[in-house]
Design a protein that fits this description.
The chain has 249 residues and is an alpha/beta fold. The chain has one domain (3-152, 190-218): NAD(P)-binding Rossmann-like Domain (Rossmann fold). It has helices at residues 3-8, 10-13, 19-28, 40-50, 83-94, 113-117, 129-142, 171-174, 185-188, 192-211, and strands spanning 30-34, 54-58, 99-103, 121-124, 146-152, 155-161, 220-225, 230-235. The chain has an eight-stranded mixed β-sheet, sandwiched between helices. Helix 4 (40-50) packs parallel to helix 5 (83-94). The longest helix has 20 residues, at 192-211. The chain is globular, with a radius of gyration of 17 Å.
Length: 249
């Protein structure tokens, strides 16, 4: 790191758990962030500010007026732009020394593996099961940690999946493909700061995964309820019949 980087990240380097070596590890790391919406917006800004050296951001949507209530990385002047273009500009304004790769295609089972393979961690902020299942399967096959978050109404959930390990569940152990409860904020609404809380926590967990710090919510599902401001943690177990991860590890 040069002097400017040492100054930029000085408050983080002061932490004994991070230090100069940890900051260098972040600068050397790559992360794939899927979805630049309510979750991805705060997540992207904190990953950029924290110094993840290469961020691959994926979203095929454009900014709409209805997004601005919670998708804080986008501004009114960005309406109509690709979300990845809007997000990249804000991220580079925060930290011009990182590399950002933008993807505007829909990530699916046919094209996701090459991006998961080059990253140290994947952050899923998508809003449908089909995409989440494809991301999970790729992360298991590529042996890449997956930080998954979701929000709806006043509620959120967060977990870290390492289903490629013998004793750890994957996302599909929690939600089998037969689950049809594919709710989204378009139909159900969302209280804006809930997305901020969960998106920030998602970035926190990703940084901890890269640095191997503390509790990483591996094998646990954190549930957040903003109405009573409660946090619950539920233990998750590997499904011995899971078609994705049961025979991996």
């Amino acid at each position: 790191m040069d002097n400017q980087q040492l100054l930029r990240y000085s408050r983080q380097i002061l932490l004994p758990e991070v230090g100069a070596d940890g900051q260098q590890a972040l600068l050397n790391a790559s992360a794939l962030l899927i979805g630049l919406g309510g979750l991805g917006s705060p997540c992207a800004m904190y990953l950029a500010a924290s110094g993840i050296g290469h961020l691959v951001i994926a979203d095929f949507d454009q900014v709409q007026l209805s997004n601005l209530q919670r998708q804080v990385i986008h501004h009114t002047s960005d309406i109509g732009k690709d979300k990845v273009t809007s997000a990249k500009a804000k991220m580079l304004a925060i930290n011009p020394n990182i590399k950002i790769t933008t993807l505007t295609q829909d990530l699916n089972a046919n094209n996701i593996d090459k991006w998961v393979a080059i990253c140290d961690v994947v952050l899923d902020g998508s809003d449908n099961f089909a995409t989440r299942f494809a991301i999970n399967q790729s992360c298991v096959m590529q042996r890449t940690p997956l930080v998954s978050a979701a929000v709806i109404r006043f509620e959120g959930q967060l977990s870290v999946f390492k289903g490629y390990k013998q004793n750890q569940p994957c996302y599909q152990c929690l939600y089998p493909r037969t689950d049809s409860n594919d709710e989204n904020c378009v139909d159900n609404g969302i209280f804006a700061p809930v997305a901020g809380v969960l998106g920030t926590m998602q970035a926190l967990q990703a940084l901890k995964v890269i640095l191997n710090l503390g509790e990483q919510l591996t094998g646990k599902l954190m549930l957040f309820d903003a109405l009573d401001f409660s946090l619950q943690s539920i233990r998750l177990h590997k499904d011995t019949h899971c078609p994705i991860c049961a025979n991996v590890g």
